[in-house]
Amino acid sequence: EVLLTAAARAAPATLGPQLVSRLQAACAACPAGQARGLAAAAAGAARSPLPPPVLEREAAAAAVCVAAYDLHDAFPKLAVSGWVRTELLPDLIAFTAAQPASSSLPLDPAAPLARRAALALAAFVAALGRGDRAASYGPLADALSAPDAAVALAAAAALRTLVDDWGFEEADFVPVAPAVVKGLGRMLGAAV
Fold first, then answer.
1. In this predicted model, what pLDDT tens digit does every residue of 79-88 receive, in sequence order?
2. pLDDT in tens, 92-102
3. Under 8 Å CB-to-CB from 40, ≥6 apart: which residues?
4. Which of 35, 78, 65, 33 shows the shortest CA–CA distance to 53?
5. Whether the Cβ atoms of residue 38 and residue 30 lie closer than 8 Å to each other
6. Coil, helix or strand for 29?
7. pTM higher than 0.90 for the full model?
8. Do 128 and 80 meet the contact criterion of CB atoms below 8 Å apart?
9. How many Cβ atoms are within 10 Å of 87's Cβ, its own excluded?
10. How far is CA 86 from the centre of its chain?
11. pLDDT digit string (tens) for 116-147?
C-alpha cells in the first residue's frame, strides 16, 4: 500500500488511468453478485476457494481504494456513482440476501467482494452524491449482521465514515438507524 500510494503521488496522470482500466476489466470478468456462481463453477478445479476473477476484482478495487485520495482527478472516468450502483451495492446486497445454508467451501466467495464494497464506499465518500449515500445505508446496515466478521466490521467502518462526513443528511439515515443500532448491538454481543 505504501508503494502504491507513493507511485500515485509521483505519477497520478499515468497510474490513475491504469488502475481504472484494471478495475473495469476485473469487474467485467467477475460481474457484481456473481462470486458464488463463479466459485461453484470452478469447484474442484482450483486449489483456492476463490476463483481468480474474484481475487483479481478484489485486488483491483483495493488498489483503487488505496489510491483514491491521491488520484481523485483520475476517477471521474470511473464514474463513481455508476460503480456504486452497478458493482458495490449489488455485491453487498447479494452477500447479505443469500447467505448459503451450508457450503463445502471454507470461505464464502462473496465475502471478500462484500467487504471491499463497504471499504470502497468509505474510500470514495467525498465522491458520493446524496442518492448514492442514501442507497448505501440499507445494504451497509444489513451487512452489520453478516456472519463474516470482516464484512460486518467493514460495514461498521463505512457507516461511520458516511455519517462523519460533511455530506451527511440526517433525514436519509433515519429510516435505517434502528437496523444500524440492532446490527451494532449484535456485533457487540457476539464479541463478548
1. 788 899 999 9
2. 999 988 765 55
3. none
4. 35
5. yes
6. helix
7. no
8. yes
9. 24
10. 12
11. 999 999 999 988 889 999 999 999 999 999 88
